[in-house]
Amino acid sequence: GGDAIHVYNLANGLSELGHSVEIIHCIDSYIFKYKNKQKKYGYSNHPNVKVYSLKNTFGALSPIMSYLTGYPVFKKRLKTLLENNKYDLIHYHEISFFGAKIFQYGKAPKIHTAHTHFSICPQTTMLRYGKVVCNKKGFDTNCHFCLLTTGKPPQIWRHTNLIENSLKHLKTIITPSEYLKNKLIDGGIRANIIVLPHFVPDPLPVKNKETESYFLFV
How far is CA 217 from CA 10, 180, 200, in A? Predict the structure, then answer.
């Protein structure tokens, strides 16, 4: 997805500048999203990038359990990686299948790039019943019906203070647009939020400059 491509470009871009980058991701979530068919795309990483692919004996159940409870199934493994390694910075991205509790793990300064409305919307899209724009400014019981309508199970942990308590452990939340920043604030998120637009790598050299076809990507 787009957030994964962003992380890939960011990690390798930082590595090219001389930084050491370690990526932690849940392979169970990936397989679950692609119906247990792990696809191979052949992306290559810079030598300074190290990848930890977490896999649990529960298989596809591990991301579902974290999604429902808000607590990471990989608690021991994650704490070992995030707290024993001497990182200068921990950067969280899409964590819905890890659970909101993961923001509380790690001893280094922590930031989070919000790619979606996850912090304020169980659907992450702010679309009520998957069809119309939702302008609600808080979680309530209707959110459960909204999830069920689109085939997703309710997140009981949303009735607790887990997300608020977890966000307190972050130094900063990054949003790629003013819209998302304002939406999070309107939704009750009390945190330091800054806007940092996404980037794309420099384009490859054009081999045939006399081509007649042009495409604009926005």
Answer: 19, 21, 11
C-alpha to C-alpha distance for 119 and 189, rounded to whole angstroms? 8
Phi/psi at 112 (5° precision): -140, 125
Contacts of 124 (CB under 8 A, 6+ apart): 96, 116, 117, 118
The model's pLDDT over 109-168, given as tens digits with 9 standing for 90+, comes to: 999 999 999 999 998 999 988 888 988 887 887 888 888 888 888 888 998 999 999 999
pLDDT tens-digit map of 158-205: 989 999 999 999 999 999 999 999 999 999 999 999 999 988 888 777
Strand partners, 174: 113, 194
Query: Measured between alpha carbons, how far is 45 from 98 in angstroms, rounded to an integer?
Result: 23
The length of the chain is: 218
| Residue 46: count of CB within 10 angstroms of its CB | 15
**DSSP per-residue string spanning 46-89:** -TTEEEEEE--TTTTHHHHHHHHHSS-TTHHHHHHHHHHS--S-
Is residue 117 within 8 A of residue 176, CB to CB? The reply is: no
